[in-house]
Amino acid sequence: MDEEALLKQFAAQFAHGPDDADDTDAAAAAQGADSTANQATDDADQSPATFDTQQFLNGLDAIFDRHAAATEAGPYLEQAMVDAENAGDEAGLLTVLNETMGFYRSQGRHKENQWIVQRALELAARMGLTTGTSEAWATTLINCATSMRAAKQYDQAEDLYHQAQSVCRHSLAPTDRRLAALHNNLSMLYSETNRPDKAELELREALRIIEASSVNPDADIDVASSHTNLALTLLTEHKLEDAHWHAAKALEIYRTGHLEHSAHYASALAGFAQVCFAERRYADAVTGYRHALAVIEECYGKDTDYWRITADNLRQAEEAAAQAGATVDNAGVAGDAGALPQSGSRLPNSPAQGKTGANAASSPSTVSVSTGSAGAAEAVSACPVSGLKLARAFWTQMGKPMIAAKYPQYTGRIAAGLVGHGSECYGFDDAYSQDHDFGPRFCLWLTDEDYAAIGEQLEADYEALPRKFSVDAQGRVTFEAHARSDASGAFPSAGAGSPVTPRAQGANHRDGVFRIGDFFESITGYHTAPAQTAPHEWLMLQESTLAAATNGEVFADPTGLFSKTRQGFKNMPDDVRLALISKRLGMIAQAGQYNLPRSLKRGDGAAAWLSIHEFVQATASLVFLVNVPMVVGYMPYYKWQFAALRKLSGSMFALLPNVGEQLETVMRLSSAACYGGAGFGEGGKGAAPAIEKINDIVEQIAVDIVKELKREHLTTSGETFLEWQRPYVEDHIASDDPVLKSL
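Given the sequence above, the corresponding structure tokens read:
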């Protein structure tokens, strides 16, 4: 089994079955959410609820207790959603959605889970939970983030986890197990994005919290799960001895607590098997995988990714055992641990800690990189890593230690990350982006008080940081304490300060030290997001402006103040979102369905081309609005509009996923449609075929939009001329503010 297989097994343990500490506590967390949300619902609606949340949870527990989840849990959850919605019980519905997310993850039903994630976030926003620090909001964020992570939507998952961290600081006690779940799930994300050192730290913190909260840690299933997860992380760091101890400790806890028939036991068995494989104990690896498969089949059935991946790893272990001539103990598959260690005993003669497998003897090559003056046309080589990855490494290796050494009393008060203008903040940078504003950089965000005390000196210390670095074949970035010339001459000497163009200097600087409020004001004109009750202010903000204020990554935010401010700009009021959807429907109808065909019939190519532009802009914006900016972000400015649209459309969670490609086809055909193809290489066929194709696409997009509006219960009309859909959408706007309604 090569390193890729190791990572595959590692992902299998985390992404399926009882992958999270929050699975065990999901019901309790949901009940807390139910209580908090019920209060919000009661304030707004005194109608009696007919959905019994506790009865729902008891019924779900009964299904899992008799190991019938594979066939019964899905229909049960789907019916519960209908019942809660029919009863008008928003709190109960949020509970059902949280439980459904966990079950769908365990079944690998990631595409279906998209609807659940989006529905939960929309419901929480409608209930007014997103502006507070309630347990309901914290629970929902954690579950949504975990679902996104399981679907490999890592950027969105990490953002949701960080939002959850900010909420949890205020809503949960220090020993609350949901905090452990959050650390546990963050560790999985870090592991799956090749940051094992950060994953290990998160898991150790999760284990500390769970042990502190446990009545009997030696028989606690959550403690066992944490040991397994930590063992697998240590394995990826080649810390075999520690990995073995934690994996064996997990099995010991299951036996002490007589928990061998728990679904979680499969993860512990497979985790120990993975450690044995790395230690070349192939026979014991086979035994562990066989036990794991038996438990998975009992609890989940065979038709899951969890079963298939574990079966594949068993096959590889059996092949390795056969090649090594090892004898496998076939006794006691389901109920007995067989050859697995008892009481955490250590298997003898394991190999010394270090690299194993195909990459054991390899040493990565490195590429030296240094930054010089901005816009240097003679740049010799492009940096092989993204700007965000470079920024994170620069912060971790240079910025964070500098603050710890020079500003120790402020280490718990300074936020760091990279947000704002620049292609790298969107994750769209490439080799062509590196001729300006590219290089090691990050932002430091301070309160007004802290900025007054240390801002100027901290800026000077930031500018003085060395920026010489190298990148190895695995994409790992290493900064050097002192810049030196590259002997090969492939790269220029490191320059001092940040590489910036004139528009990114002075008051417009894009990195360095900022007051939190000033940073957001420089982008949006507001220190903090407009009030939820000020729709006219929200409507004055361009989506591209909001995109720049909410993109990028936050590397550290000890107080949570920066993330809270940033989250305010993400949380567009739903009335405003609906008003914008209505406006976009009007422009799609006006430009695409009405003016475009009329302009083409007149032979006015210029007017037709401008109509296409307006149609494309409005439609692209609508896609982001329908997918909810809180979930997918805002549409960025024109240069990156289609890059963002392609990324969104490629997600398994996307609504209206085909529209982006259809819009690109319209643009590709626009020259032929508007000008008969003259000079554009369309082969002299004239305008007619292109016009027909464009008109067909415009109408198909309209049909798809109406279907989506119906799915979201925003309309009951099948009318495909989208102007007539606007009143139906606007009926869902709760505010009476006339600025939100069409004339």
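The chain has a mean pLDDT of 79. Try to locate this feature in the token string yourself.
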